[in-house]
């Protein structure tokens, strides 16, 4: 199964991607992972991306597209893949169609995780991290520490990352609505989009996603 996962920041794409790829036995292809892997391995694309990022500029679409194209030629994608973070805009979606056409394959579906904007703001702006270990994550509503502002695991101070502030989250949402959301309409015209609610427990969303993908595959 070849899937594109899309949704606003805070929709839980990373968590659902890990669960879906395990259930469907396909690799999780994340643009973030691709950038880190190419840079750490010192590939030509990685060196190019790093040289651009070091100047504070955004990596051009053509570099990201080239990394994805290279990744989709690996043997583990033969039976499918889940793309997370790509395509990020319509130009990348068009490029992906061209790549898949060149490979003689096509997408099976696009899973759209839908979350109300205020829920997204609440999820992200409410996060608190431990200064000693950023893997210790809390939330002012959903996962409160025993003592306010103190990590249960190590006693470290809990803080809010600057990019988790409400102002920053709303800016990220504006970027999503402007740049990424249009790909949903692009794929909807191809009859590929299935939209599900990303509200509820992680298990509930996963069950909803699996059911939607399997129903779409049987259509």
Descriptive overview:
The chain has 219 residues and is α/β, with parallel strands linked by helices. Helix content is 48%, strand content 15%. The chain has a domain at 2-27 and 74-115 and 173-218: 3-Layer(aba) Sandwich (Rossmann fold), CATH 3.40.50. It has a five-stranded parallel beta sheet, sandwiched between helices. A three-stranded antiparallel beta sheet has the order 6-5-7. Helix 2 crosses helix 4 (61-71) and helix 4 (61-71) packs parallel to helix 5. The model has no long low-confidence stretch (mean pLDDT 92).
Report the CATH C-level class of the domain at 2-27 and 74-115 and 173-218: Alpha Beta
CATH homologous superfamily caption of the domain at 2-27 and 74-115 and 173-218: P-loop containing nucleotide triphosphate hydrolases
Strand percentage lies at 5-15%
The overall pLDDT, averaged over residues, is: 92
Overall geometry comes to: globular
The total of beta strands comes to 8
- Uncertain runs are none
- Structural class assignment: alpha/beta
* Oligomerization category of the chains in this entry: single chain
State the order of secondary-structure elements, H for helix, E for strand: EHEHHHEHEHEEEHHEH
CATH topology of the domain at 2-27 and 74-115 and 173-218: Rossmann fold
Q: Total number of helical segments?
A: 9
Report the span from N to C terminus. 14 Å
- Fraction of residues in helices? 40-55%
| CATH architecture verdict of the domain at 2-27 and 74-115 and 173-218 | 3-Layer(aba) Sandwich
* Rg: 18 Å
Let me know the largest β-sheet: 5 strands, parallel
């Amino acid at each position: 199964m070849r899937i594109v996962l899309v949704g606003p920041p805070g929709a839980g794409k990373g968590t659902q991607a890990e669960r879906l790829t395990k259930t469907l036995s396909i690799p999780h292809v994340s643009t973030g992972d691709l950038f880190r892997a190419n840079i750490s391995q010192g590939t030509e694309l990685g060196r190019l991306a790093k040289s651009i990022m070091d100047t504070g500029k955004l990596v051009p679409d053509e570099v990201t597209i080239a990394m994805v194209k290279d990744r989709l030629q690996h043997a583990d994608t033969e039976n499918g893949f889940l793309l997370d973070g790509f395509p990020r805009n319509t130009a990348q979606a068009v490029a992906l169609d061209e790549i898949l056409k060149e490979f003689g394959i096509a997408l099976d579906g696009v899973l759209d995780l839908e979350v109300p904007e205020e829920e997204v703001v609440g999820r992200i702006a409410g996060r608190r991290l431990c200064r000693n270990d950023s893997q210790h994550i809390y939330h002012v509503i959903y996962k409160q520490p025993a003592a306010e502002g103190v990590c249960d695991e190590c006693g470290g101070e809990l803080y809010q990352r600057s990019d988790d502030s409400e102002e920053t989250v709303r800016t990220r949402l504006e970027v999503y609505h402007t740049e990424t959301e249009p790909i949903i309409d692009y794929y909807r015209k191809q009859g590929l989009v299935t939209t599900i609610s990303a509200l509820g427990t992680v298990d509930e969303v996963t069950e909803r996603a699996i059911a939607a993908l399997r129903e779409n595959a049987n259509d």
